[in-house]
């Protein structure tokens, strides 16, 4: 998949996420975003950028499969059939689940936003046809980089990630 398409998808997804959080804030409500909510936001985002692709190559639509689960559970809360499908047939994984209500207990945020990514990466390593993982983090990623514009690249922690996770536990 073209990197420009992935970048556009992530950008539109983040915009949808920020709009959703803004609406919750304006209405003075907690902003819980479930896996289903994340999939809906991803679908809205993809609709904005994939119209041309859908017109030119409609056969690609049959290759898309949404798999429900729970990022905080063992095996990402997926049934055995979905796990088998991922392991044997899937080449591109979109991981968009996150807790964006930062009033939640740190343990819940850690499970959903940090440890779930480790589970997804571990799953991808086992997939026979795996090619790419598209991970969309929360809009608050890299909030410590305030003095320069963020680029589409990985910003490393000044220490090993395991040290961070152990400290949060």
TrEMBL record:
SUPFAM superfamilies associated with the record: NAD(P)-binding Rossmann-fold domains (SSF51735)
Catalytic reactions of this protein: a long-chain fatty acyl-CoA + 2 NADPH + 2 H(+) = a long-chain primary fatty alcohol + 2 NADP(+) + CoA
- Family under the similarity heading: Belongs to the fatty acyl-CoA reductase family.
Q: Which GO terms describe its molecular function?
A: alcohol-forming long-chain fatty acyl-CoA reductase activity; alcohol-forming very long-chain fatty acyl-CoA reductase activity
State the protein's name.
Fatty acyl-CoA reductase
Alphabetized, the UniProt keywords read:
Lipid biosynthesis, Lipid metabolism, NADP, Oxidoreductase
Coiled coil regions in record: none
InterPro entries according to UniProt: FAR (IPR026055), FAR_NAD-bd (IPR013120), NAD(P)-bd_dom_sf (IPR036291)
Q: Which Pfam families match?
A: NAD_binding_4 (PF07993)
Keyword Repressor assigned to the entry: answer is: no
Record flagged with keyword Zinc:
no
* Gene Ontology cellular component list: peroxisome
User: Which EC class does it fall in?
Assistant: oxidoreductase
A Gene Ontology biological process noted in the UniProt record is:
long-chain fatty-acyl-CoA metabolic process
Q: Which EC numbers does the record give?
A: 1.2.1.84
Q: What does this protein do?
A: Catalyzes the reduction of fatty acyl-CoA to fatty alcohols.
User: What range(s) does the Thioester reductase (TE) domain occupy?
Assistant: 49-155
Q: Which organism is this protein's natural source?
A: Araneus ventricosus (Orbweaver spider)
């Amino acid at each position: 998949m073209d990197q420009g398409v992935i970048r556009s998808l992530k950008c539109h997804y983040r915009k949808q996420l920020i709009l959703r959080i803004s609406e919750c804030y304006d209405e003075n409500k907690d902003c819980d975003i479930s896996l289903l909510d994340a999939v809906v936001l991803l679908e809205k985002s993809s609709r904005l950028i994939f119209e041309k692709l859908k017109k030119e190559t409609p056969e690609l639509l049959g290759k898309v499969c949404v798999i429900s689960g729970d990022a905080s559970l063992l095996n990402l809360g997926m049934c055995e059939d979905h796990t088998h499908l991922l392991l044997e047939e899937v080449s591109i994984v979109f991981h968009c689940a996150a807790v964006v209500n930062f009033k939640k207990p740190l343990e819940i945020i850690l499970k959903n936003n940090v440890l779930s990514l480790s589970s997804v990466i571990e799953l991808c390593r086992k997939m026979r046809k795996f090619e790419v993982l598209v991970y969309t983090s929360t809009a608050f990623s890299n909030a410590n980089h305030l003095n320069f514009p963020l680029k589409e690249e990985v910003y490393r922690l000044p220490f090993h990630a395991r040290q961070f996770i152990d400290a949060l536990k």
